[in-house]
Amino acid sequence: MTLWRPAPRIRHDAAPGRWPTAAEAAASRLFQPFAAGPLRLAGRTWVPAMVPWRATAEGFASANVIDWYRRFAAGRPAAIVVEATGVRDVPSGPLLRIGDDRFVPGLAEIVRAVRAASDGETRVLIQLIDFLAIRRRPERARYLAHHLEITAHHRERLNAADADDASVRARLAALDEEALRLVLTPREHEALTFGYRERVTDVHLPHVRDLPQTLPGAFADAAVRARAAGFDGVELHFAHAYTMASFLSATNTRADGYGGSRAGRLRLPLEVYRAVRRAVGAQFAVGCRMLAEECIASGHSVDDAAGFATEFARAGMDFISLSRGGKFDDAAVPKVGEAAYPYTGPSGYECMPSYYSDAHGPFGRNRGASARIRAAIRAAGCATPVVVAGGIHNFEQAEQVLARGEADLVGFARQALADPDWFRKVRAGRGAEVRLCRYTNYCEALDQRHREVTCELWDRLELASAGTQRAADGKRRLLAPEWPDPPDPISGGPDAR
Question: Where are the domains of the chain?
Fold first, then answer.
């Protein structure tokens, strides 16, 4: 489907900046030890959650998923957040799940792989997510013949009070697009042209109405499983197009105390957090991923986000990780047979901007909002660490973020995918060997098609080498090539870091 792009389209190329020497890196803010609640980190580097589409169809951790996280851990970031993992035991395709004890052994294998590959240096958390139903865009004829529920509304619009359902369906099928739009309700027309999608405001659906009763326990049980699997903490997914972010959204008009005002929209996320904290205790890290801005019409602003983050900090969250945009509300129209993808509209662009951008460019678009949110947290007397991500790819950018107090931890997502060894290379004074992300969003295109996510900078390298794991299409390697240990600057032998 067509992705939204800003106008005018200005090309911005990633710049390496000046890479530090090994001594400069060792003395930098970025590589100093840091504490986030019970998390004791070797530095301030953070790999945010990215879905690689490598789980089994039943949601178990496959060998390819385990290898994916092992490869990131070999680069030794201070922390890795494992991909969005469903807290309810419902089918969700090749995405990790944690809604039942049967998933724990596979998740524990991920933890063991990260520990071994990083010699215990990298801390590993798992992101917990809930999502509502979304369906593929149907064929027009099939939707009208089978999926649409015929009601008195349709009969009234068609002046066909006594017609049976089959006759109403036949008359609907004969209408042109504009006439059909006038007969269908807005939600029915959306289901036809975008695909059916549940919202947190669909309180006529019992399972949606009861989310405030079911989700705190579901998240708490998932966090207990995460602790049993050996993770160092959990990140509650309160961002983008999914359930918890939808409760926080300014578009949440629920009238049951869980919507409307800022306090109402905040109520369930706080209840979820408190249930999780009660379940796992103070020695297990609990934070969240949330939006600094929704970036949609009538969406919540930075001021709203600062208010949310301050309340999360007061409640005792151990960290707050900031993203932006990525909503269904402005997504592009999907093709028939495909589902809407929340990163195709203007808000999706804000989440994952590309190298063709507006005058601001794609690098660090969330830094200003992050600085305002962190300042609000500090003004409230809280020291809760803030993680910022979004187009940060060189050492100078990261150091500047920390020096200016824009955040406390720096997230490298696409850059870590482009080069999982960024952290080792920079610490070794070999930043010139870093494989810089080009921000073409090749990886995003794979994600949109639910194909194994790889990077164009390395997925065709050494394909013929023995042991190279290939994607299902046979044309791409699944993991970045290994980077050998750099020589120790004193002995000349391998650096054990």
Answer: 10-134+201-448, 140-193
